[in-house]
Write a structure and sequence with these properties.
Elements: H1 5-20, H2 25-44, H3 48-61
């Protein structure tokens, strides 16, 4: 009369393993996940490519921490005496 959803899930997985095979099951799951992701992006209007372009354009406008900034010396050069007023 009352069935457990866990038991139903296990039965479905066993049937899938028998029909598809253990080698093709991960590919099927990956494809199903990609399809669901595309469906969600289509519904919400968000696109992964647009997000990547936005982050790329933001990264190009901001200076990267890898590029060294020009060093400014705090001490005046020793050869010029015009700065000291002499």
């Amino acid at each position: 009369m009352f069935r457990s959803p866990l038991t139903d899930g296990i039965v479905v997985l066993v049937i899938l393993l028998l029909i598809i095979g253990p080698k093709k099951l991960p590919q099927l799951g990956r494809g199903l996940g990609d399809g669901m992701r595309e469906f969600k992006e289509g519904i919400t209007g968000e696109n992964k490519d647009e997000q990547q372009k936005q982050t790329l354009s933001q990264a190009q406008t901001m200076p990267s921490p890898e590029q060294p900034q020009p060093a400014q010396s705090a001490a005046p050069s020793q050869g010029s005496s015009s700065e000291h007023g002499a």
